[in-house]
């Protein structure tokens, strides 16, 4: 099992990555960027700009049409099918719609990555409670997800993402259904994970929040990376300026 | 606490625990939907019970046919002119032979009475001016004369005796019955093969529906890095449970069928002055039935899981 964290200076590396879907054309075009271990970055852009596609490529939910994606030193194109589960366990994924199993308790939902990795039962108990403690839901471990508020459900989703001690957390519109206060709370939570060395890549179009937090932001427009900078908090929304593109 | 145990042993323990949990969770799930489970199990049970019952019946009839052949008499029909006294002399002579066990003389009057009782020709027989039947000697081969060829040779020899019109082995029809039984047995295997395929399809379809119902769960497990084996496991156990429960129900059905058949069999056996205790499946056959059910269930679910999970996990 590769649950123990390994550190690499460069955790995620995209090189000239393109993704074309047969039915709706190019989702990503010639995309290159790096994310270091322990770095937090936002991924933004209009819907359909390719944010979800980019995250899916990292989790190997999709494979690129061209270019290479590396995670923790591994070229994903060379990763055999049977190693995909182990690869996904290095990544914690958080979704806008939580993707919790409705008929299982909070505890069982959070335990799922560990159970499916064949971990010992007692160890699972310890880790799940630690993760629930981190998101402040320790008292709700017996509850069913649908009895929780949307913000609580999202925190369960986050606990499930971090319980396997991943190297990177990918979050796809994690605050899409939450009001600004709850969103801020969720992002504070994410920042705490960065402090312990986990990388974070968060797709969101909550621009106000991005600016107030002041982290690196990757801006996608129609499948291209058009900006990669740390926004200065006071300035109004920066109009993403097309940078000189790398030669294809 | 378990730190002192070797790593592989802990792994094995975890693995066994995972399997046990998958098996019990799956059984729980089946029990929580009793009606749906019962329908599938019943379909499997009927498909298994039908050939198993036929095999049990064939077994019993073959056993019976063997008994009948061994115990059957050779009937010597004496020449029409010979009376009971002449028959008695011949019977006495035959009784001294070592290849003959017992000789019963059936007088012409006794033969007519028996014919009247069993043939239903009562009225018509009364119209006859006199008794047309010959004297018959029922010759039972010596108990140690069991080989078919020896009995055939004895029959030929008896037919050639002076005063014997013709000789007939009562067991002739048993031979034909045995031929029919072996045909029936082969047919049963063929039928069984088709029904086994039916079991595989029934389980496969049930598991396919189960996979559809638990689609979201499968997708989430896939996202969080569950291995294919982990995702497949509960479905394979479900298939095995369906097969095993179907086998148990089939076994009960076969035994019930045998029990229900006992009374009509008793009536038939009484006609032949025989006793026939029907025997259900023996231990080996019972274990084989349960094992076969389980195996077919697993094959069915394995096929369904292989086909449908691949569709859900495209990368």
Structural commentary:
The complex is a heterodimer of chains A (248) and B (315). Chain A is α/β, with parallel strands linked by helices. Chain A folds into two domains: 145 residues, P-loop containing nucleotide triphosphate hydrolases (Rossmann fold); 58 residues, no CATH class. Chain A has seven helices and ten strands. Chain A has a six-stranded mixed sheet with strand order 6-7-8-3-9-10, sandwiched between helices. In chain A, strands 2-1-4-5 form a four-stranded antiparallel sheet, covered by helices on one side. In chain A, β7, α6 and β8 form a beta-alpha-beta unit. In chain A, α4 packs across α5. The N terminus of chain A is likely disordered. Classes of the chains: A alpha/beta (248), B alpha+beta (315). The interface between A and B is medium-sized, with 29 and 23 residues.
The CATH fourth-level homologous superfamily of the largest domain in chain A: P-loop containing nucleotide triphosphate hydrolases
Instruction: Compute the number of helices of chain B.
Output: 10
Q: What is the third-level CATH name, the topology of the largest domain in chain A?
A: Rossmann fold
Query: Helical residue percent of chain B?
Result: over 70%
Shape of chain B: elongated
Short description:
Chain A has 248 residues and is of the alpha/beta class.
What's the SSE blueprint?
The complex is a heterodimer of chains A (248) and B (315).
Chain A: E1 10-21, E2 25-36, E3 40-44, H1 51-58, E4 66-71, E5 74-75, H2 84-89, E6 91-95, H3 106-115, H4 121-134, H5 150-162, E7 168-172, H6 180-195, E8 199-203, H7 207-213, E9 216-221, E10 224-229
Helix pairs in contact in A: 3-4, 3-5, 4-5
Chain B: H1 7-32, H2 34-71, E1 74-78, H3 84-95, E2 100-106, H4 108-119, H5 122-126, E3 136-141, H6 148-159, E4 164-169, H7 172-213, H8 215-223, H9 228-271, H10 283-312
Antiparallel strand pairs in B: 1-3, 1-4, 2-3
Helix pairs in contact in B: 1-9, 2-7, 2-9, 7-9, 7-10, 9-10
